[in-house]
Amino acid sequence: MPDATSIAEVTTIAAPIAMNVWNSISDFVIILVMVLVFVMFSRYVGRGPFVGVILSFYTAYALYIAFPYMGFLPTAPAITAVAAHAGLYLGLVAVFYIIMRRVVVSDFLYIGSLGLILLSFAAAAFLIALAYQLFDISTVYRFTPAINMLFAPKEYFFWWFLAPTVGLFIFAK
User: Which residues have CB under 8 Å from 74's CB, separation 6+?
Assistant: First the structure.
């Protein structure tokens, strides 16, 4: 039968490893859920409206950056500030999605299943990068260092910003 000191040693070694694995899995689940939401949306509503959502991310970003009343949004506590900024951005996305759905979306658009999954991943990655750069999500939720390395640097934001556009250029026919 193991003694108490050997159990304590195993616990002090295993606990940080288990927590690191759990954090990595939870970050992966966050990305996976976002990808699944986009895939299910495009399957339920259609490929054309899905393209409208992606395009509305860009138009909402342009208006969000130029929004003149940022000083009126709360800055503390951190969760309230992130929620206010994200709510403003999502509200702009909703408005532009309605416009895009009425004006731009074609019924003759084809995106294959693999392309749809990759576009969904690019859209999810764009939103995570946006959360890092615009909303400072790191004050509310701590991602693992691997996710931080991908999305936190400002130099990478351009590439995550460009990814859905390149995906649309390649996969939408």
Answer: 80, 81, 84
